[in-house]
Model the fold of this input.
Amino acid sequence: MEQNEKDEILEKMNQVSIDQRDNAQNRLEVSQILEKDPENKELLDKLDVLSEENKELYNTSVKLESKLLGKKM
Done:
């Protein structure tokens, strides 16, 4: 793998990490509000969407790391 390919993967990994951090912060904020209002349907739906996004981000991260390390998935 050429250096420019590695740099591109690392750049994508950095962005995914930032997105994961932001997602975690959003999930924390939603769950803290839900502690006070556990029946809030809108927030429950938002938490569900955030959880799905988190799974996608995790899978993307794993794929990028595997690609960088030259491992087959």
In short: The mean pLDDT is 96.
